[in-house]
Every structure is written in structure tokens, then in C-alpha cells.
Amino acid sequence: MVEKLLQSGIHWEKKEFKRNEFLKISGSTDTHIYFIENGSVRIYMIDDQEERIIRFGYTGNIIVALDSFLSGKPSDLYIQAIKKTTVKIAFKKDFYEFIQSGEESMRFWMNVLEDLVLQQLEREKDLLINAPAERYERVLKRSPKLFQEVPNKYIANYLRMSPETLSRLKKS
């Protein structure tokens, strides 16, 4: 379905981001949708001077600061390249024209949103589970590719544990 989006006639601008470069910073409004051609990004916020990773994106994913994209208001979220990352970027306006162009396109958008809601529910469950080993197992089962694409220090943050705890869990 992502292929259909990429070949939909929407104007996609290809852009390369160096490691640690930002696609979006806190306080800005996201008027773009991003397709990751290769590389990986982290989406995070800062809470009490501490980074809290809420999501990752890697090759083949569509990402966006969804709160801002949907509301048109500034977001607290940062989107940052973890390594050299190539993305295709489209404007929200062009994307919305595509999804309003027909029933199949609207169905595609509904599937994307439904998938995001389900992912978010799984993420909320992860955050409510106290046992680090159980959080690790859930995420490993759900997203094995994550452990190949993203450095351990970021995964540990995402899982709310120290890098040492993650290392121990991976060994056992």
C-alpha cells in the first residue's frame, strides 16, 4: 500500500539527513509526511530535562509528528535521524488531496490511522508493564527489526530501562 502512495502523483522531495540531524524540532508544526527510504529516526520529547523516546521509524516506514499533523498545532515532539537517513517528504496539503481523490485512497488512510491506533495501544501497554524482561519480550516479538536498525542506548530509553539492563536481557 505504501508503494501506491509513493506512486500516487504526490510530489515527493528526496532529502538526506546526517546522523543526529533533525527532521522536526519541538515547538514546530508538522506540515509534512515522511517516507524513510533508508536509515532510521527516533521520535521523542523532553520531560524534566530527560529524553523520552516514544517511537522509531526505519526503512520502509511512513512517519509524522501525528499530533501536529492532524491538529495543525505545534508539537512537543522531535524527529531526529539516528544514522544517515534518506527520506521522501510530501506536503500535508498534497497528501490530503491524494486521500480525498477516491474511496481506495481514503481506505488507505483509514488503514494507516487504524494501524497507528493499534500500535499506540501496544505502546501504552508496554509502558504500564513493570517487569523490564516482559517489556523487552513484547517489543522484540512485535518489532524484531528494531533491534537490527537502532542502537541499544535508544532501545533502552524506549523500554524505560538502563542500557545495562537491556544488555543483560539480550544475553539471557
What does the main sheet amount to? Answer: 4 strands, antiparallel
Counting helices, strands and paired strands, the structural category is: alpha+beta
Q: Secondary-structure element sequence?
A: HEEEEEEHEEHHHHHH
Low-confidence parts: none
Mean pLDDT across every amino acid position: 93
Helix content: 40-55%
Strand percent estimate: 25-35%
Number of E strands: 8
The Cα radius of gyration reads: 17 Å
Could you tell me how far the N terminus lies from the C terminus, measured between alpha carbons in angstroms? 38 Å
Continuous helix count: 8
Form type: globular
Physical arrangement of strands within the biggest beta sheet: 1-8-3-6
What can you tell me about this protein's structure?
The chain has eight helices and eight strands; from the N terminus they run αββββββαββαααααα. It is of the alpha+beta class and 172 residues long. The strands form two sheets. It has a four-stranded antiparallel beta sheet. A four-stranded antiparallel beta sheet has the order 2-7-4-5. The model has no long low-confidence stretch (mean pLDDT 93).
In short:
Helix content is 44%, strand content 26%. The chain has helices spanning 2-6, 66-71, 92-99, 103-128, 132-142, 146-149, 152-158, 163-171; strands at 13-17, 22-24, 32-38, 40-47, 50-58, 62-63, 78-81, 85-91.
